[in-house]
Amino acid sequence: MAPVLILMGSQSDWPIMQNAAQMLKDLGIAWRAEVVSAHRTPDLLKSTMVQAERDGVPVVIAGAGGAAHLPGMLAAFTAIPVLGVPVPSQHLKGLDSLLSIVQMPKGVAVGTMAIGAAGAANAGLLAAQIIGSFDASVRERVVAFRTQQRDAVMNGPELELPES
């Protein structure tokens, strides 16, 4: 299977988007990352999606800040699931990015994640869950991850709560 494609509007998005890569790595899923700008390299954006279709990429994770057009523009060129990660911006802390990604017009779907690192990590997890819907070994790794999370909470230290 082709690797999950992680795209970002600029290299400065990598500190956030590396959380998606780490989640995929932790779940044993191959990925590759590239910089493709919706505004500065529109021809590259289109050719990247044409190649992703040819390669059989199962899921695209796209991080973008500010105007955040990248996830929607990618989705316009493919039927591959696109997961959008709002990257925090300097002035509006990612709210602008979130609103841009989540407000897709009817007929062009983008799965929108939370702003920032948690959203990127969850994009990696959701990509694994999508792949796990047709690959039993990936589904087993996702279930094991979720079991580890549950066990960490259940077996954590006991809290001494004040009496009410």
TrEMBL record:
Similarity section: Belongs to the AIR carboxylase family. Class I subfamily.
Known role: Catalyzes the conversion of N5-carboxyaminoimidazole ribonucleotide (N5-CAIR) to 4-carboxy-5-aminoimidazole ribonucleotide (CAIR).
Gene Ontology BP, a term: 'de novo' IMP biosynthetic process
Keyword vocabulary terms for this entry: Isomerase, Purine biosynthesis
Example GO molecular function: 5-(carboxyamino)imidazole ribonucleotide mutase activity
Name by which UniProt lists this protein: N5-carboxyaminoimidazole ribonucleotide mutase
Species assigned in the record: Pseudidiomarina indica
Cited InterPro entries: PurE_ClassI, PurE_dom, PurE_prokaryotes
Start and end residues of each PurE domain: 2-153
Reactions performed catalytically: 5-carboxyamino-1-(5-phospho-D-ribosyl)imidazole + H(+) = 5-amino-1-(5-phospho-D-ribosyl)imidazole-4-carboxylate
